[in-house]
Amino acid sequence: MLEAYAKRILQARVYEAAVETPISAMPQLSKRFDNNILLKREDLQPVYSFKIRGAYNCMAQLDEAQRAKGVITASAGNHAQGVSMAAKRMGIHATIVMPRITPEIKVAAARARGAKVVLKGDAFNDALLHAQTLMQEHGYTWIPPFDHPDVIAGQGTVAMEILRQHQGPINAVFVPVGGGGLLAGMAAYIKYLRPDIRVIGVEPEDAACLKAALAAGERVTLDQVGVFAEGVAVAQIGEAPFEILRHHVDEVITVNTDEMCAAVKDIFEDTRAVSETSGALSLAGLKKYVQREGAQGRTLIAINSGANLNFDRLQHIAERTELGEQREAIFAVTIPERPGSFKAFCKALGRRMVTEFNYRYADAGQAHIFVGVQVQPGGEDRLEVARRLEAAGYSVEDLTDNELAKLHIRHLGGGRPQEPFSERLYRFEFPERPGALMNFLNHLPGGWNISLFHYRNHGAAYGRVLIGMQVPEADCATLEQRLDEIGYRYWHETDNPAYRLFMS
């Protein structure tokens, strides 16, 4: 299998549209982690993503009859641009079906290259099913985003370039995983020529379809897929990629949202490139690997797979970056409600930078403050801050890993009802698009008073809402049954310590 794919990769027709991208050094990150860290710059492709390679190679293999029918594909954005560009160069009509959560920058780019864009559904699988329906109705030729040998071969040329460009030792290559086409092509080529190099896939924790498949020994479909990195938000690994990956990938590392945001910042600081979150995914995995292994003096290469990022998303990424770097910790601290308390609290912190401080008067005895503190990466310094505050007599709750605190409470802290009442708190995620908030409100069950509501648009694919409702104990089961029927992901947060300390 590896030999056959290596030949396909060597013969792939990609450079009629794609370019050979450079490998950039990352001097600051390399010094910080004491390794030689390099970045393969697929963000420099004409469509700002590696996807042009597989799309063009697949379409270059079509015969005249297949081209005459026109082509169709489903995509969360980057593959769409590859197909659009290839179709324009070849004079082929292209139809692209995208989920409605696709960033506008990717939708506009596909349309600008002459493709007909159809927005359908709230996730990639919805778009995929609709595209297949259109294919049956109109006889279009299907161009798969990852599950095809010619697509895999086209993506595999990334590995071919790496081994040619960097002929010295390479200890590991880190590759983002969505449907698996890029990782499969790179693994096939690298393991055929340089089996000593570790090939490591990287997935978001909430979209880890390859990790689930490897654990099960077969392809599985995830019940839910997180879409913060929409470029890799795939529920099931591709069939053709999995046949390669089940034997030839060394491991899969998963990372969280904060770690991806931190990697976006790392790429910018070393290269001045602004990566999309899925583009920075593999670097986040590389950093996690170095910290886990205590690696030093190794040559490690990550793939910056794309730079198609909506500008307004940068604010949210910046907010989460310091947490992803483990350079900021968030605490809820109880202090006495009297003059001089804040000064005494800062004295207990020592010479540390306070990054955020939220407070509102609650009662005459105690105050609960929401505070961000600058810490050193690694986790031990964060524990030391908590120990130091507790030694000074403060009650401390570490909220650094608390999603409710990071998404909502930091913007709401201190608001409390004047009189106690029975309140249930829920955190929701719903597909973000024009009119989405009103659609969410229309689906909320009536009959219970809304006592708290927080929504903030930060340019992400999903909107996030915090909602409190006055619900008698006897109605709780009925309420959650109604919430289940809405079909959006939600979490019951009434017992969350961030809510208990600052809002209830």
Write up what this structure looks like.
- The chain has 504 residues and is an alpha/beta fold.
- It has 4 domains: 2-46 and 151-323, 3-Layer(aba) Sandwich (Rossmann fold), CATH 3.40.50; 51-142, Rossmann fold; 326-401, Alpha-Beta Plaits (2-Layer Sandwich), CATH 3.30.70; 421-497, 3-Layer(aba) Sandwich (Biosynthetic Threonine Deaminase, domain 3), CATH 3.40.1020.
- Helix content is 42%, strand content 20%.
- The chain contains 20 helices and 18 strands.
- The protein has a 6-stranded mixed β-sheet, sandwiched between helices. A 4-stranded parallel β-sheet has the order 5-4-3-6, sandwiched between helices. Strands 12-13-11-14 form a 4-stranded antiparallel β-sheet.
- The mean pLDDT is 88.
- Its cofactor is pyridoxal 5'-phosphate.
- It catalyses: L-threonine = 2-oxobutanoate + NH4(+).
- Residues 329-401, 424-495 form the ACT-like domain.
Describe the secondary-structure layout.
Blueprint: H1 2-11, E1 23-25, H2 27-33, E2 36-41, H3 51-60, H4 64-68, E3 71-74, H5 78-90, E4 94-98, H6 104-112, E5 116-119, H7 124-138, E6 141-142, H8 149-165, E7 172-176, H9 181-193, E8 198-204, H10 209-216, H11 239-248, E9 251-255, H12 257-271, H13 281-293, E10 299-304, H14 314-324, E11 328-336, H15 341-349, E12 354-358, E13 366-374, H16 380-391, E14 395-398, H17 403-412, E15 423-431, H18 436-443, E16 449-455, E17 462-470, H19 476-486, E18 489-492, H20 497-502
Parallel strand pairs: 2-10, 3-4, 3-6, 4-5, 7-8, 7-10, 8-9
Antiparallel strand pairs: 1-2, 11-13, 11-14, 12-13, 15-17, 15-18, 16-17
Helix pairs in contact: 1-8, 1-9, 3-5, 3-8, 5-6, 8-9, 9-11, 12-13, 12-14
